[in-house]
Design brief:
Blueprint (H helix, E strand, L loop, with lengths): L8 H11 L8 E5 L5 E5 L7 E7 L3 H6 L2 H9 L13 E6 L8
Antiparallel strand pairs: 1-2, 2-3, 3-4
């Protein structure tokens, strides 16, 4: 039997490390999940205090037809960007805690 994790370990560990670092750090990582979901984690405009997480998946339009936009808005609120990063279906803008924010 194959045991699959419910989240992408690369994405989880990267966000955990970057959002809990003693000071903001730059990041630029691309990852692909077992089911073909593509992730990009980066800093917009080299602002180390902001992390952009974007995802692209083949079945996203099917999910939109079944209400995923409302679900994402409810779960992520203002972090969900109205316009995703170019080439991706959904983008979250994550801000480091204020005591970590420096450029």
């Amino acid at each position: 039997m194959i045991l699959l994790e419910e989240n992408n370990r690369v994405v989880y560990e990267t966000l955990k490390a970057k959002l809990s670092a003693a000071k903001p750090e730059s990041v630029n990582i691309a990852a692909v999940d077992f089911d073909g979901v593509q992730y990009q984690i980066s800093n917009p405009g080299n602002d180390k205090g902001v992390i952009i997480l974007s995802a692209k998946m083949r079945m996203f339009q099917d999910l939109v037809e079944h209400g995923v936009t409302d679900l994402l808005t409810r779960e992520y609120g203002d972090a969900l960007q109205a316009t995703p990063e170019d080439g991706y279906d959904v983008t979250l803008r994550l801000i480091s805690p204020p005591f970590l924010r420096t450029k």
